[in-house]
Amino acid sequence: MTITRRRALGLGAAGAAVGGAGVATGVWTRKLPGRTRVGYWLGLGGDPEPMPTDPAGAVRQATFSSDARPGVLEKWALALPPGVEAEGLPVVIVLHGWGDDHRFCFDELGLHHYQARLVAEGCQPFALVSLDGDHSYWHRRADGVDWARLVSEGLVQELAKLGLDISRLGLIGWSMGGYGALRLAAEELHGKVRAVASMSTAIYPDWEHCPQGDAFDSPADFEANGLVNRLDRLDGLPIHLSCGVNDFYIDMSKRMAEELSPAPQTMWRRGDHSANFWRRSAPVQLRFLADHL
Asked: Which of 79, 82, 106, 188 fits a disulfide with 152 by CB distance 3.0 to 4.6 angstroms?
């Protein structure tokens, strides 16, 4: 029997046995509650990761308008390495997770501090930009707002106005934003992105196993915008995936890694679905992106 990418990723929905060993299996395969707590007891959550303190450039705030979401001033931010001008710089676009905003990557993750550290260590300078995505899951929604085009056209046009090099784009995101980065690379920005880095990717085997109620508008929306049926669109693209071993997305992340071609770089370490793990991943992933821009 041929196992397609879709079927292989769907294996995460397999049933669990009952009884002594079966209950343990059920907990660990997430068919029964408690895996995160068990992971903490086993020390899989990881240690706290402090905010970076490297001297960084200023984070500049701005707004723009787009017909992808008419009548709204879109908030976004730009960070440049200390002492570096925008003209001709490649760009890493940051897509935030569910419940976060365009400031989170700077205020809570310190990405501009890691940016400054990497450039000081000899990495190619690059700009960091982020924008608000609400709870959108970074795709066109039933209300008509096209969050993907807001990035691929609205934001990218603003970057070009500043003289940034939009022919050298990288994408990074976590959770909802990790999903968004991979989906955009497969669709609206297909062929226009040089590399993608995704942390704790929000990827689901099917509509029934999507726990975030507003991630997709309907089963049809999931079919049209889910990751599992478009992984072949990412073939040939340099990708870095990271996920904490105590994160509820770890199993699907590993299965996704097995399906991508060429094999992505991966980082599976102690950690859960939190800023601690994303701070731990950020310098590794930003260096990966800088090396491919």
From this structure: 188
Distances (CA, A) of 152 to 54, 62, 181, 193, 284: 31, 17, 11, 10, 25
Give me the pLDDT at residue 35, please.
59
Domain assignment present for 29: no
Give the neighbor-by-neighbor strand order of the sheet with 127-131.
59-64, 74-79, 127-131, 91-95, 169-174, 193-199, 239-244, 265-269
* Rg, the chain, Cα only: 19
The span from the CA of 291 to the CA of 52, in Å, is 21
Q: Which pTM does this prediction carry? A: 0.88
Please state, as a whole number, how many other Cβ atoms lie within 10 Å of the Cβ of residue 191.
8
Please indicate, yes or no, if residue 199 is contained in any of the structural domains: yes
Sign of CA dihedral 253, 255, 256, 258: positive
- Residue 2 located in a structural domain: no
The torsion of the CA quartet 65, 212, 277, 251, rounded to 10 degrees, works out to -130
Ranges of residues in the chain with a pLDDT under 70 are 1-43
% of the chain beyond a pLDDT of 90:
80
Please state, in angstroms and rounded to a whole number, the distance separating the CA atoms of residues 184 and 172.
11
The owner of tokens 């059920």 is 26
Domain that holds residue 72: 51-291
Residue pLDDT, tens place only, 200-249 = 999 999 988 887 778 999 999 999 999 998 999 999 999 999 999 999 99
- Domain count of the chain? 1
- 135, part of any domain: yes
Question: How far is Cα of residue 207 from the mean position of the Cα atoms in its chain?
Answer: 20
CATH number at residue 271: 3.40.50.1820
> Per residue in 22-45, pLDDT tens?
433 333 344 334 555 565 556 677
